[in-house]
Amino acid sequence: MRLHARLAALLAAGALIAPLAACAPPTAEAGAASTASDGTAWGTTTSAEAGGGMDALVAAAKEEGELNVIALPPDWANYGAIIDAFEQEYGITVNSDQPDAASQDEIDTAERLAGQDGAPDVFDLGQSVTLANTDQFAPYQVATWDDIPAANKEETGLWVNDYGGYMSIGYDSAKVPAPTTVADLLKPEYKGAVALNGDPTQAGAAFSGVVMAALGNGGSADDLTPGVSFFSQLDDAGNFLPVDPTAATITSGQTPVVIDWDYLNAAITTDLPTWKVVVPTGAVTSQYYNQAINKDAPHPAAARLWQEFLYSDEGQNLWLAGGARPIRADAMVAAGTIDQAEYAELPAVSGTPVALTPEQTEAGAQQLASTWAAAVS
Amino acid sequence: MTALAAGRRTASRSSGRLASEVTAAAGLLPFGALVVLFLLIPLGVVFAGALLDESGRPTLGGLAALGDPVVRSAFARSFELSAITAAVGAVLGAAVATVVAGSSPTSALRRVVVAACGVLSQFAGVPLAFALVATIGLSGVVTQLLGGAGVDLYASGVWLFDTPGLVLAYTCFQVPLMVIVFLPALDGVRPAWREASLTLGGTRWQHFRLVSVPVLAPAFTGALLLLFANALSAYATAAALVSQGSSIVPLQIRRALSSDVLVGQQDLASTLAVGMVLVVAVVMGAQALVQRRTARWLR
Questions:
Q1: What DSSP letter does each residue of A155-218 carry, written as one string?
Q2: Are residues A175 and A100 in the same domain?
Q3: Does A260 touch chain B (CB under 8 A)?
Q4: B255 contacts in chain A (CB < 8 Å)
Q5: A147 and A234 housed in the same domain
Q6: What is the Cα–Cα distance from A51 to A40, expressed in whole angstroms?
C-alpha cells in the first residue's frame, strides 16, 4: 500500500519473471480447483454458510495451515497485532510478503505467482487499483455482510471497504504551533517543516493530502488546482519538505509536520507523546481501503477465514485500536460491541466529509500527473 | 610410410583443434544463457510493451507519450544530471588518475587509491543515499556539527532530496569510476615520448598540448560517455533519495509501474524504457567508436 523505494532490479525482475512464471506448472492444490477433505471447493465458495458453516471453514483453513498476505506494514492500521491475533486464534501461519509494497504491486505479484504456493491469498487495496482489477478477485460475503452499507461494497462481494480515515495534519506540539486550517501551514513558523506521505501521483495517502489542501483552499472534489497551487506556495515559502516521512523521521524530529491519514498519524503518538493529530476545518476528506480475495489464492479457505476475522467484532476493534475507522463502526456502536475507549480517541471531525468518486479520482490523478512535478521543484 | 604418418598426425591435430574450439564455445554457454535471460528477454518484453497495442498488433501510438511535456522535461532533467555529473566526475577523476599515474606501479598510494575507487565506484544506491542522509541529512552528523558552528546547510531550502542532491550523490560514484577507467590510458602514455619531446627542445606545455592531449583525448571522451550512460541509467540512488516529483526518467518509470493513483501505465513504462535504451545505445555506440581511436595509440 505504502509506496517505498525499491531496488534497481525492479524493472528487470518484473520483465523476467513474467515469462518464467508462465512456464511454471500450476501446483495441484492451488486455486479454485482445490477441495477440502470434506469435499468443499472453498476457492469458489461465496460465504461460510454456503460452504457448510463457520466450523467447516475453520477446519478447512486449519488444514491448509498457512495464509499469504502482502503489503501489510505492521505499523499500518494495527496490522502487526491483527496478524498475531489471527495466528494465535487459529494456529495458522501468516506469511507476510513485501510489507511496504504498493497496491499495484499486490496485483502484479498475484499475476506473476499465479498457480504457485507463494501467491498472495488476500489483498488490501486502494480504490483505483481495486476498481481496475476486479477480474483478479473471488466474490465472498462475510457473516457480517449486512452491517456494511451498500455503498461500501461490490454487490457480489468482489471487494468490500475495510477501514478508512480522514486526511489529517500530524504535528509535534513541542516544535511547532497547532495548525487549525490547511492555510496555517504557510506561516513562517512552519519553515522547512511540512512533509507529505509520498508523491501524490503514486501514493493514495499523498493524493488525498492534495485533495485536503484543495478543499481547504476553495477547491472541490472536481477541482484540485487549488491543492496543487497550495503545495507550490508551500514549496516557494520554504515550508515544504520533500522527504518521505516515516516513524523514524518523525521521532527524530526531521519532519515536525506530516500530512497523512489520521490513523497513521495517531499511531505515532505512542512513540512521541507530543505528537498531535488534527483534521483541519473545512477540509475533511475520507477514503476507505478495500479487502479482496485473490481468485488464484493458494489457501482459499484461510483467505476466507481471514476475511471473517477482519470483519468480526474482534477484527474491527483491532483496526480501531490502530486509529483506523472500521467499516462496521456504525453498526457496532448501535449494537454496543465497539471498543468505546478507542472510539472516543479518534480525532474530532467538523464539517461534511468529501469522498472522491472513482471518476473524480481518475481525473484528479491525470491532472496531478501533469502538474505535480512542476509544483514542487 | 613417413608421409602417411605425417598425414595422420595432421588429421588428428586438426580434429583436436575442432574439439577444443567446441569445448571453448561450450564454456561460453552460461554467459550466453545469462545474456538471453537478463538482456535479450527483458529487452524484448520492453519493446513489445512499447510497440504493440493491446491486441498484439504493432503500433507507434505508444511512442507519442515521449512528446508529453512531463516526459520531455524528465528526459531533459536526466540529460542535464548525467551531463553535469559526467563532466564533474571526468575532470576530478582525471586529476586523481594523473596523480596516481605518476607514482610507481607498486607504490602504496596507487594500491590504496585503486582499491578504494574499485569499491567506491560500486557504492551507490540505498547505501549511498543512507550515507548522505546520515551525514548531511536534516539531522545528520555533519549537519548538526555545522549547525553548532552557526552554518546552516539548508538555509536556502532542503536541496538534498532534489536535483542538487542527486548531483552530489552521483558525483560520489562517478569520480572513482573515472579513475578506474582513465588510469590505464594514462599508464599507456610512454615516458619515451616525453623524453623525445624534451630532447627536441619542446617545453612541458608543448608536450601536454601536442602529445598528451591528442593521445588521451579519445580515451577521455570515451570515459566521459561511459560516465554519462552510467548516470543516466542509475536508479536506486535516486529512488532512495527523491520522493517527490519523479524528476528523472528512471523515477518516471517507477511511477508508471507502481503508482496506486495512476493505474494501467505499464505500457508507458515500456515506452520510457525504450527511450532510455535508444539514448544509451547511441551513447555507447559513440563510445565504441572513440574507443577504437584510443586503441591506435595506447595499447
A1: TTSS-EEEEEEEEEEEEETTTSPPP-SGGGGGSGGGTTTEEESS-TTT-HHHHHHHHHHHHTTT
A2: no
A3: no
A4: 199, 201-202
A5: no
A6: 6
Q: Per residue in A185-214, pLDDT tens?
A: 999 999 989 999 999 998 889 999 999 999
Report pTM: 0.79
3-state SS class at A166: strand
Task: Convert the pLDDT of each residue in A311-348 to its tens digit.
Answer: 999 999 999 998 899 999 999 999 999 999 999 888 88
Instruction: With cut-offs at 50, 70 and 90, classify the pLDDT of residue A27.
Output: very low
Closest Cα of chain A to B181: distance in Å?
A: 23
* Domain B69-295 CATH superfamily: MetI-like (1.10.3720.10)
Give chain A's mean pLDDT. 88
> According to DSSP H, which parts of B52-162 are helical?
69-101, 108-120, 126-136, 141-148
Q: Phi/psi at A96 (nearest 5 deg)? A: -100, 110
Same domain for A221 and A251? yes
How many folded domains does chain A comprise? 2
Q: Do residue A213 and residue A86 come from a single domain?
A: no
Is the pLDDT at A10 greater than 70, yes or no?
no
Which cell goes with A204? 493514495
CB B229 within 8 A of CB B78: no
Which residue from A7, A105, A199 is facing B125, i.e. has the nearest CB?
Answer: A7
Domain boundaries, position A258 = 165-285+352-375
Q: In this structure, are A222 and A267 located in the same domain?
A: yes
**From A1, A19, A108, residue closest to B41, measured CB to CB:** A19
This model of the complex carries an ipTM of: 0.77
| Domain parsing of chain B, residue ranges | 1-59, 69-295
Q: How far apart are CA A300 and CA A51, in angstroms?
A: 12
Based on the domain organization, do A8 and A106 belong to the same domain? yes
Tell me which residues of chain A, numbers 142 to 201, contact chain B at a CB-CB cutoff of 8 Å.
Answer: 192, 196, 198-201
| Gap between the Cα atoms of B85 and A2, Å rounded | 31
Q: Are both A151 and A10 inside the same structural domain?
A: yes
The CA distance from A311 to A162, in Å, is 8
Q: What is the CATH number of the domain that holds A130?
A: 3.40.190.10
Please indicate, yes or no, whether residues A152 and A14 belong to a single structural domain of this protein: yes
- C-alpha span between B200 and B67 (Å, rounded): 58
